[in-house]
């Protein structure tokens, strides 16, 4: 998962700083540690996120490891829908230049309660040194896809519907 992505903090692939202990480790190991500690995490990506990936696996793994959202300038075709099916939030910067405002050590809050068809969401950025600021994010969710997110995946939504029919 993301082992080939270059980290803007250090220019290296598969090496991220764990915010809980300050140590640098592989992306999957850090994600597993966050999941164990109940910390949801977000990927901030550039243009055409998901290009060249094994897209279904690239959508399943972040969800499995406790990810909440992938925020990018744009997504590769199909990958955005695969993320939705896995219960992830694929979001794009409403203003692509906002990508440059977020630094590797910034922390973010994603206002998930704002998720509604046709409405933007807010990403609140807490810079390591500086004032908190908000960034607007766009999405392409429809009502059914919002249910996928609420239920944790499309498969969970189908199982819930089947269970309610049999009750």
TrEMBL record:
InterPro entries, alphabetized: Aconitase/3IPM_dehydase_swvl, Aconitase/IPM_isomerase, AconitaseA/IPMdHydase_ssu_swvl
Pfam families listed in its UniProt record: Aconitase_C
Keywords: Lyase
Coiled coil: none
Domain of life per record: Eukaryota
UniProt domain Aconitase A/isopropylmalate dehydratase small subunit swivel: residue ranges: 2-95
Molecular-function annotations in GO: aconitate hydratase activity
PANTHER family for the chain: ACONITATE HYDRATASE B, ACONITATE HYDRATASE, MITOCHONDRIAL
Name the UniProt record assigns to this protein: Aconitate hydratase, mitochondrial
Species assigned in the record: Cryomyces antarcticus
Name of the gene encoding the protein in the UniProt record: ACO1_3
């Amino acid at each position: 998962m993301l082992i080939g992505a270059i980290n803007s903090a250090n220019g290296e692939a598969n090496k991220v700083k764990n915010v809980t202990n300050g140590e640098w480790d592989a992306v999957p190991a850090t994600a597993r540690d966050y999941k164990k500690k109940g910390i949801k995490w977000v990927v901030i990506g550039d243009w055409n996120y998901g290009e060249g990936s094994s897209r279904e696996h690239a959508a399943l793994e972040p969800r499995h490891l406790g990810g909440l959202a992938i925020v990018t300038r744009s997504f590769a075709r199909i990958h955005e829908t695969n993320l939705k099916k896995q219960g992830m939030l694929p979001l794009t910067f409403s203003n692509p230049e906002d990508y440059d405002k977020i630094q590797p050590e910034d922390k973010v809050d994603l206002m998930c309660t704002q998720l509604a068809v046709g409405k933007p969401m807010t990403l609140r950025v807490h810079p390591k040194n500086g004032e908190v600021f908000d960034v607007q994010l766009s999405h392409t969710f429809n009502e059914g896809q919002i249910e996928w997110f609420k239920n944790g995946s499309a498969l969970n939504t189908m199982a819930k519907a089947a269970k309610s029919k049999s009750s």
